[in-house]
User: What shape does this take?
Amino acid sequence: MWGGRFASGPAAMMEQINASIDFDKRLAPQDIAGSKAHALMLAKAGILTPDDANKICAGLETILAEILAGTFTFSRALEDVHMNVESRLKELIGEPAGRLHTARSRNDQVATDFKLYIRDWLDDTDGSLARLQYVLAVRAEEHAETIMPGFTHLQTAQPVTFGHHLLAYTEMFARDRGRFSDARKRLNECPLGAAALAGTSFPIDRKMTAESLGFARPTANSMDSVADRDFVLETLSSATISAVHLSRLAEEIVLWCTSEFAFIKLTDAFTTGSSIMPQKRNPDAAELVRAKIGRIAGAFQGFVMVMKGLPLAYSKDMQEDKEATFVALETLDLMLAAMTGMIADLTPNVENMRKSAMKGYSTATDLADWLVREAGVPFRDAHHITGRAVAAAEGLSVRLDELPLEALKQVDSRIDQRVFSVLSVDNSVASRVSTGGTAPQNVRKMAAAWIKRLEKEGFGG
Ligand code: ARG
Assistant: This one.
């Protein structure tokens, strides 16, 4: 009675929910590379004639050219990139096209395609991270002696150098590169030839396929090959951590640009004006880098939810690995480009940074350390004495180094004239020569070492 209304409805809806071509078409280059490797392997193993394999490869190259030229017509009715390519191959070369799908399935095919795509992204993004590290190191060398307040709890803690602060991020991005490179090593096994889930009865040479696609080896278990997407999760989780680093640096740029901090200035290239308040220069690029982590962390969490509880082996749920991942990976690239641009663009207000570093009794720890070193006072006691000195300075509304000696002596008679040599911000930073400390000589050395290393890797200049 009511079936007529549904006759075409469900079909249309099915295509809408099922077809992945709108987004997986970007895997076409990887899909074609995988198919060529598979065809050549089948020929070598005597499963295809050399003539058929050649026709297949030539047809696939034509298809790639059509796709790159934008003349290829993708069809939703053909569901995904694999079927779109195969169907066009059939139009181009006829019968041999139907032999390509021997000893494989879309399940091992899509796992291979996506691994190849992510591997390319990992390689490109390693370069983007390295270039950001390089810009940070160059600015750090330039500002090895620029003094700024170092914060804990966003309260002035101790003076540091701006170069030291920048190099902190160079270290973070180095670890991000390490995580991506670990992910690359683990993903670099070829699923192709695992077929649907159980392997194949054809005498294929999976080692050959793996090698021709640049994989280290074939995957060891056919079910694992088609059932897991941990390489996607690992890449997204590493991307999330990297985005956390970018977001924190972006937040600092936003803070530093305020008139309250006034530590840096960005040029017109990375700021925008307000349509109502003419005086404004808003650090939109930094704000957006701060914000865009949402897409990346969201992609990670979303896809964790997809994979959780899925029984082996392939399920269509796994098609959900792509869309958000494409967006997330593109987003990280954009964040890296914007951040690299801003770090190169920013001009520190050296005077303001210095003035700010002198506020907040930032050299109180230096006074305590002096008492330990010169008067043999246990640090715990020195800490207490210094606290009283800070209170005295606060009472007189002066900085610690502006307190008269008598006032200091009243706090503790062991304090003498020599203490003033450690109360300046310059002496404070210069004294922090411990490994990893903020002393300008350390910062110059570390910045130079990073610059040299990154130039050697080919990312400098
Ligand atoms: N479009 C699918 C995906 O992205 C390809 C694999 C489909 N396999 C299948 N047996 N329907 O996961």
In short: The chain is about 65% helix and 5% strand.
